[in-house]
Amino acid sequence: MQTKIPVGILGGTGMVGQHFVRFLQNHPWFEITWLGASDRSSGKPYREATSWRLDGPMPATVESIVVDDCKPGRAPRLVFSATDASVATEIEQAFAQAGHIVVSNSRNHRMEPDVPLLIPEINPDHLKIIPLQQRRRGWKGQIATNPNCSTMVLAMALAPLKPFGITKVIATTMQAISGAGYPGVASMDIVGNVIPFVGGEEEKMEQETQKILGDFTGDAIRPLAAQVSAHCNRVPVVDGHTVATSVALERKTSIEELIEAMEKFRSVPQERKLPSAPPRPVIYMQDKDRPQPRRDAMRDQGMATCVGRLRECPVLDYKFVALSHNTIRGAAGAAVLNAELMYSEGLLD
Predict the structure, then answer these.
(1) What percent of the chain stands above pLDDT 90?
(2) What angle do CA 114, 145, 338 make, to 5 degrees?
(3) At residue 1, does pLDDT exceed 60?
(4) Within this chain, do residues 144 and 204 fall inside the same structural domain, yes or no?
(5) Residue 349's pLDDT band (boundaries 50, 70, 90)?
(6) 297 FRET partner, CA 20 to 30 A, in 51, 220, 309, 330?
């Protein structure tokens, strides 16, 4: 039996931290041995430091772990970061400087030119920028990130279309309230309503999509040369971000060929059978009224992206609807899959 790799979670008491805790239960490679949080939680057992907000009981394997400060020292080499953006920069850099491998869900380092912004099915080669990151910054460790939860949906749906030459994208999101953390959006604001603003989200989607779908050139990541426009909205859905997308392609083709490209889309995680990789990263749904968050967000344990309603667009070329689980594929599950890819590349040795 393989000895499991000890892992820690920075920001382990928050909502994203709790999703990490739940997602990592019974993981075949990783085992949570350390949890870090703010000073007010430090020194307490996790069951006392945390107000558990997810469905089901707190996993028994973490209840007695004593929460530590978010400082290098006692943490294992591999740490997942669920830290708040207000403190993530300093904390993550301190851990990387001290030799830790930081796999982050925070936004702070995503757009830095020497930090990989990973979706393992799309750009596993972007990990090759890490030696440059270490040389430039004098780090023994490293930082890798996963994208914003809405970017994840869009980029996964677009990736099978990249060979056709993506030139323009217009994306309109319908984002679940769980993306706002806890307590999230006030009920008086969201029940029976749509809020047409999610702070900073549109800029993230536009820039991150270009970086993820860009090409590694040997010493840099060249962004995808496509125009991306995003409209971001919060809707009264608990889990699952839906993105209605129009796209222009250099090479015009048939709807059938595009659907085939989506259905056949596979990459390194599927080839290597990484534990958290969905067998079909993009699932095309033929029903006219799918995908739907309540019915489809949890497909393949919440790690698949569902696409439907692919049709011609009278303004651009084609349009479709895509859906992913925002706190699993768009957060904790994404980071864990990134770490699995890094392990399979020998970067955790």
Answers:
(1) 97
(2) 115
(3) no
(4) no
(5) confident
(6) 51
pLDDT in tens, 211-252: 999 999 999 999 999 999 999 999 999 999 999 999 999 999
DSSP per position, 187-236: HHHHTT--B---TTHHHHHHHHHHHHTSEE-SSSEEPP--EEEEE--B-S
- Tokens standing for 117? 């912004």
Domain residue limits at 14: 5-148+332-344
Annotated active-site residue in 19, 100, 241, 325: 241
- Give the mean pLDDT of 173-178: 98
**Which tens digit of pLDDT belongs to each residue from 285-307?**
999 999 999 999 999 999 999 99
Query: Is 241 annotated as catalytic?
Result: yes
Neighbours of 151 (CB within 10 A): 30
Decide: residue 60, CB within 10 A, 0-12 exposed, 13-18 middle, 19+ buried.
exposed
CA distances from 206 to 36, 133, 151, 217, 230 (A): 32, 24, 8, 21, 6
Q: Is the dihedral of CA 115, 85, 332, 196 positive or negative?
A: negative
* Whether residue 171 sits in one domain with residue 141: no
How far is the C-alpha of 245 from the C-alpha of 264, rounded, in Å?
A: 20
pLDDT (average), residues 313-340: 98
The one-character DSSP state at 317 is: S
Catalytic residue among 149, 232, 306, 325: 149
Residue 349 lies in a domain: no
Task: Please check whether residues 113 and 173 belong to one and the same domain.
Answer: no
Q: Check: CB of residue 204 under 8 Å from CB of residue 117.
A: no
Are 187 and 200 in a shared domain?
yes
The torsion angles phi and psi of 290, rounded to 5 degrees, stand at -125, 155
3-state secondary structure of 75: coil
- 107 within 8 A of 148, measured Cβ to Cβ: yes
Cβ partners under 8 Å of residue 130, min gap 6: 116, 142, 144, 347
The tokens of 349 are what? 């040795």
